[in-house]
# Entry
Amino acid sequence: MTVGGAMGTTSVRAWVALATAWAIAVTTVAIWVSRTPLPLLREQLKSAQFYSLELCVAVALAGGVVLARDLWRSLERRDIVAMTGLATLALMLTLFAAPRTHRIFYDEQIYQGIGQNLSDLRRAQMCNDGIVEYGRLRCFATEYNKQPYAYPHVLSLVYRVVGVRPGAAFAVNAVAMAATACGVYLLAWLLFGDPVVAGFAGLLVTLTPQQLLWSATAAVEPTASLACVLALVAMLQAWRSGSVAALAGAVAMTAYAVQFRPESLLILPALGVLGWRHRAAIGAWRLGWMSLLGFVLLAVHVTHLFAVRNEGWGTSGSRLSLQYLWPNLRVNGPFYFADERFPFIYTGLAVIGLAWRGWLVERAALVAYLLAFFGIDLLFYAGSYNYGADVRYSLLTYPPIAVLGGLGAARLAIWLARLVPPGWERPAVTVGLLFQFLSYAPLVRATTEEAWAARADVRFARAVAAELPPASYVLTHNPAMFHIWGINAGQMSLATVNPLQIDYLGMRYPGGVFVHWNYWCNAADPTQQKYCHTALGTVPYTVTREYRERDYRFAFYRLLLPRRPRP
# Structure
C-alpha cells in the first residue's frame, strides 16, 4: 500500500516508522530535561557533551568524504589555484601582519582549559582545582560552563594529536583564517557558479581587518564564522549531489556548526531559504529522516541551552531586549559605513552585488544570513561593537558581506572593461582592493589598548610559571591557563571556602604554594579582592616576583607553610 501526492510512492509503513522515531526522540529528550534536577542535569551534560560532539564529527567525516569527493570533481584547476593563493595570503597575513595575542580575557584561556578537560578527561567542564602530573590533567573541583562546547572540542582534537600546548589555539585560528578564505570562495562559487565572483569574495574576507586581527587570537569567533560557512557549503553541495551520505554529512556539519556560539543557530534561516528551492529534489520522506538525524545530533546542545537559560551572562538585567536596539544600532550600523575598523568599500560593493539582477533566492539567503547575525547583536545588552572587545561579534557578518561584495566587485569589473584595455579590468579591481588594504595595515598590526591590564597579567604569569619549582601549586582566579602551561593550580576562592585547604596543599605540594596576585586582585570588585586578601591572610608569605604596569601591580607570593609529614 502506498500514499500518493507529496509522499510519492513511500509506503505507509515507512512513514509510520519515521513518525515513531521522531516521537521516541522528542519524548526521550523531553523526559530527560523535565525530570532531571538542574544541578544533576548540568553534571550529566559534562559527559554527554563529549560523546555528542564526537558523534557529530564522526558522522561529518563519514559524509564529508563523499562531499569532498564530489566537490573536488566539480572544481577546475583555476579554482584550486585561486583557493590556494587566497589561503596562502590569508595565512601569511595572519601569521606575519597581525600580532599573536589574546584580546578577550579570560574567555580564551577558559576555552583552552575546557579543551584540555575534553582531551584528557572526556568531560566538558572548567577545572577549578587540578593538577597536571605525568602529562595529564586530573581535576578535583569542576564547573559546567554556559558557553557551547564545539570550539573547545576542536581544541581537544588538536590536543590529542599534538599535545596540550599554549600555541595550539592560535594555530587553530590561523588555519581557520585560511579555511575561511577558501570556504567563502566555495560558497560564492556554489551560489553563483562564477569563479570571478568567488575569487573577489575570497579576497574581500581575506583583507577584512578585524577578521585578521581576531584570527591571530585564541577567541571562538573565527572558528564559529568558519563553521557557518562550511555548513552552507556542505549543504549546497549535498543538495546538488542528492546522495544520502552527503546529506547526512552536511546535516552533521550543520549540527556541529551551531554549537560554537549561542547565536550560531541563526545560520538556519539562510539554510532554510536555500533549502526551499531544493525541497522537491530532497523529498519529504528523506527530509524527515535527515531532520531527525539533526535533532539527535543536537539533542544534547538543546538540553544545554535549557540548562543555562537562566545564566546572567554578566548582567543582572535583561540579556536580550528591545531597549538595547537603538543604542546598539547607533554604533553597529555606522560600523559598516563610517568606522576605521571596517572598509566602507566592502559595504559599497555588497550594495552593488545586492542590486544585481538575478539570483533572487541566493541573494535573499545572504541577506537572511547577514541580518540574522547583525540583528541579534542589536538586542543583546553587550552587543555594541564598541562594548569592550565585542567588535569580534561582527566576524559572523563578514562572509555574507564578502560574497555580496564579490558579486559587486565582479559587476565593477564589467563596468571597468569599457574604460581599460581588454583583460585589465579584473587585475585593476584586485590591485585596487589590495591597495586600499594598506590603509588598514597599521590597525591590523596594532595590539590595541583594550584589555591591556589582563594582557600584562597573562604575560607576567607565564614568565613566572616557567620558573616555578616542580610540584608547586598556584592559587589564582584563572587556573585554566596554568593547567595549559603544565602547572598545578586552583581557584583563589578555595582558600576562602575552606581555610584548611591551604594546609593540605602545603603537605601535598613540596614545591610550594603560591598566590597569584592577578588582574582580579586589582580590579574594582570587592568580592574578587576579598578572595585575594583572604588567601594571604591565613599564613605568613614572601614576595617571589613582582611587576607593575600603569596603576596595576602583579605579583607571586609564596606561602610560608610549615613542613608537615603527610598522614
User: Anything to note?
Assistant: The mean pLDDT is 92.
